[in-house]
Specification:
Layout lengths: L1 H15 L17 E6 L4 E3 L2 E9 L4 E8 L8 E2 L4 E6 L8 E10 L4 E3 L3 E5 L5 E9 L2 E7 L7 E8 L5 E7 L4 E5 L7 E9 L4 E4 L3 E4 L6 E9 L2 E7 L7 E7 L6 E7 L4 E5 L7 E9 L8 E2 L3 E2 L6 E9 L2 E7 L7 E8 L5 E4 L7 E4 L8 E8 L11 E17 L4 E6 L5 E6 L4 E5 L5 E5 L6 E6 L5 E6 L4 E5 L5 E5 L6 E6 L5 E6 L4 E5 L4 E6 L6 E6 L5 E6 L6 E5 L4 E5 L7 E6 L5 E6 L4 E5 L5 E4 L7 E6 L5 E6 L3 E6 L4 E7 L5 E6 L5 E6 L3 E13 L2
Parallel strand pairs: 2-9
Antiparallel strand pairs: 1-3, 3-6, 4-5, 4-7, 7-8, 7-9, 10-11, 11-14, 12-13, 12-15, 15-16, 15-17, 18-19, 19-22, 20-21, 20-23, 23-24, 23-25, 26-27, 27-30, 28-29, 28-31, 31-32, 32-59, 33-34, 34-35, 35-36, 37-38, 38-39, 39-40, 41-42, 42-43, 43-44, 45-46, 46-47, 47-48, 49-50, 50-51, 51-52, 53-54, ...
Length: 699
């Protein structure tokens, strides 16, 4: 009853007084201030912040109000006048944490009163960090950060430029991503946001993210002709969301027709059809998706070209046959047509060899006629232009193998006797053999070497034959009875080359011991060692006039040196060719010195001055020997490229190439009559070549 009485008195007192100040929402009680929390409500769920507001009153006036959080006050939560409000930043509190809040009021007499305690729980319900990623024009991926532990789900909203946000999908509790299906049209921007929800409330919205669907056009479209029925296209894929590529083609660059669609991520594709040489063809490519496409990228026009054959050449087979060969420059032709005209007649098709057969042998030719040939390539739909016209006629020129003498060894060297009746040979069998030139029968064999024979030479009178060997020795035999006349043993390494003087009195030798030795044949006396080489000596020669000696060396030096024979004094080094010297020979007049090199080059020098006069290119590999005919008008060379070449000295013109050896040709020499050639090589044969009628071009 005492409390009821006090309440009645307060009501009468304040109800009857003029209110010059606003009436507090609470009144003092028992001389103490009254205080309460206006907000938030008890059991409030806070996210990132919460407004705490207290109300207090006292008959003598409230002098201070404190707001306690978890039983702690603070300067920023102490108020000396209204309003008694404090915004608590709950973002620093642990998610799911529970907190108590109350207010405490003080009056002027020092009395204080505490409000009821309310409970606040911190739950971060509002999602954050929303991002939208476009997968395709029909699929987008939405991701977010879940800040709540009490949500029952999420609502994802979407809008475009001219629409309002609307829920397009819901997600389950604890989800942090969701896929949205389109379509998402090109040139439109789409916006997304998300809110968490519980059974009773919905959070604020997350940040807004947007996406726009674009499909980048391919670039660098290139069309490559594979054949007249197949064209290969390539392009650069610049998009990551296409479902494929559409290819269109045109024959005028204006009207295009769809051709084919290729899979996503393609960067190439083939198109087929019948493409004529009379038209140009255009291709364009665009990226496509389910609902959209890029702009087209256009290739440069391509034109079908059937490359004509080229390099039509002729090889004389015999006096009535020629072999035509050409280079096929088209990778997709099906056959070629060979046409021939005789004298002033008309062209007629004489052969249709299939693709890949780039030759034809024409037979039964009459050497009195002139023949003209041309070739063109064909496919099933097109044909090339004609190859350049080839004109051939027969002349009395060239050499043909008439005899082959088989050997049981690699033949390194040969020498023809002055009367042309015998050939001396030496090679890997360590034996010097004397053969009859008519049938190749071995008449005599000279033994004594313990290693392969490098070089053989008949004496100028034909009565002796000299040979040098890898066993470091030089031997001279009498041809008539095979008597060993001399055995020179001064060299300390393989002897590579020897040469008789014109009168047969001297013998010059060179070896891998870097020595050039001059011997007197009659008694075998070593007259002089010509010093100067710093590398193995590979070739030596003496001028027919007896004035000069020359020697050449290998890759460590690559030098040609000359000496004056009258006193064996050093004359000069010829200019360095940067290639090992493999062969040397003076012309019969002693005017020229010719050298052959490992790089296939042949150089003609003036012997007296050592000056360069001409270069004879043509061999594809190392030169193994060089030799003049009797009047010095022709030079013959043998090579590692398996060929022999005959050169005209007056102008350095290549006259003939002799093919037939199947391995390295080691030496080729003229017979004394200058009409016949003998050669030897690593195919274990000695060949005799004679002048024959031969078909030639452009004559």
């Amino acid at each position: 009853m005492r409390y009821l009485y006090i309440l009645i008195l307060f009501t009468i007192f304040f109800g009857g007084c003029k209110d010059n100040n606003p009436v507090d929402s609470v009144d003092s009680k028992g001389g103490k201030p009254l205080v309460s929390l206006i907000s938030p409500a008890n059991n409030y769920n806070a996210v990132d912040s919460v407004m705490i507001e207290a109300d207090a009153a006292d008959d003598k006036g409230v002098v201070k109000v404190e707001i306690y959080i978890d039983n702690a006050a603070g300067d920023f939560r102490t108020f000396y006048s209204k309003p008694y409000k404090y915004t608590w930043n709950t973002s620093l509190a642990a998610d799911g944490s529970a907190h108590t809040v109350f207010a405490k009021a003080y009056d002027a007499d020092g009395n204080s009163t505490t409000s009821d305690v309310i409970n606040i729980s911190v739950y971060r319900l509002q999602p954050s960090n929303l991002s939208a990623t476009l997968i395709s024009d029909s699929l987008a991926l939405i991701k977010w950060h879940d800040n709540s532990t009490i949500e029952t789900g999420f609502e994802i909203e979407q809008r475009s430029r001219n629409t309002q946000f609307a829920v397009v999908k819901t997600a389950k509790t604890n989800d942090t991503s969701a896929y949205l299906t389109g379509p998402f049209l090109a040139d439109s921007v789409y916006y997304f946001r998300i809110a968490a929800k519980t059974n009773t409330q919905k959070s604020g919205y997350s940040n807004i993210d947007s996406l726009e669907f674009t499909i980048d056009s391919p670039t660098n479209v290139k069309a490559t002709v594979i054949s007249d029925t197949l064209i290969a296209l390539t392009w650069q894929d610049n998009s990551n969301n296409e479902t494929g590529f559409t290819v269109e083609q045109s024959s005028d660059g204006i009207a295009y027709s769809p051709y084919k669609t290729f899979a996503a991520n393609s960067v190439s594709g083939n198109v087929t059809g019948i493409y004529n040489t009379t038209s140009s063809y255009y291709f364009r490519v665009k990226a496509i998706s389910k609902y959209s496409s890029s702009t087209f990228a256009v290739s440069a026009p391509v034109k079908i070209k059937i490359n004509p054959p080229s390099d039509l050449k002729m090889t004389s087979v015999n006096s009535s046959s020629v072999k035509l060969e050409w280079k096929d420059n088209c990778t997709f032709d099906k056959w070629a047509e060979v046409e021939r005209k005789i004298n002033t007649g008309s062209f007629e098709v004489i052969a249709k060899p299939a693709a890949g057969i780039n030759y034809f042998t024409d037979t039964a030719l009459d050497k009195a006629n002139t023949y003209y040939y041309r070739v063109k390539a064909y496919t099933y739909h097109n044909s090339s232009d004609y190859i350049d016209l080839l004109k051939i006629s027969a002349t009395l020129k060239g050499y043909q193998t008439t005899r082959i003498f088989g050997a049981d060894e690699n033949v390194n060297s040969i020498s023809v006797s002055p009367d042309g009746k015998y050939i001396a040979s030496g090679g890997s069998g360590n034996i010097v053999k004397i053969r009859n030139t008519k049938d190749g029968k071995v008449e005599k064999s000279f033994t004594g070497f313990t290693a392969p024979v490098n070089y053989v030479a008949f004496s100028p009178d034909g009565l002796q034959v000299a040979a040098c060997s890898q066993d470091k020795t030089i031997k001279i035999w009498r041809v008539s009875d095979g008597q060993l006349m001399k055995d020179f043993t001064s060299h300390t390494a393989s002897v590579s080359s020897i040469c008789y003087s014109k009168d047969g009195q001297l013998l010059l030798s060179g070896g891998y011991d870097r020595k050039v030795n001059l011997w007197r044949v009659t008694d075998g006396v070593l007259l002089k060692t010509l010093q100067g080489h710093s590398a193995s000596v590979t070739a030596v020669t003496l001028s027919p006039d007896g004035d000069l000696a020359a020697s050449g060396s290998t890759s460590e030096e690559n030098k040609i040196k000359t000496w004056r024979m009258i006193d064996t004094s050093f004359v000069r080094d010829l200019p360095d060719s940067s290639s090992p010297v493999y062969a040397l020979c003076f012309s019969p007049s002693s005017q020229y010195l010719v050298s052959g090199y490992a790089n296939g080059n042949i150089i003609l020098w003036y012997a007296s001055s050592g000056k360069y006069t001409n270069n004879l290119p043509g061999h594809l590999s190392a030169i193994s020997s060089v030799s003049f005919n009797g009047d010095g008008t022709k030079l013959i060379s043998a090579s590692y490229d398996k060929t022999i070449k005959v050169w005209r000295i007056s102008d350095g013109q290549l006259q003939f190439t002799l093919d037939g050896h199947t391995d390295i040709v080691k030496q080729a020499v003229f017979f004394p009559d200058n009409q016949v050639i003998a050669s030897c090589g690593f195919d274990k044969s000695i060949r005799i070549w004679e002048v024959v009628y031969q078909w030639g071009t452009g004559q």
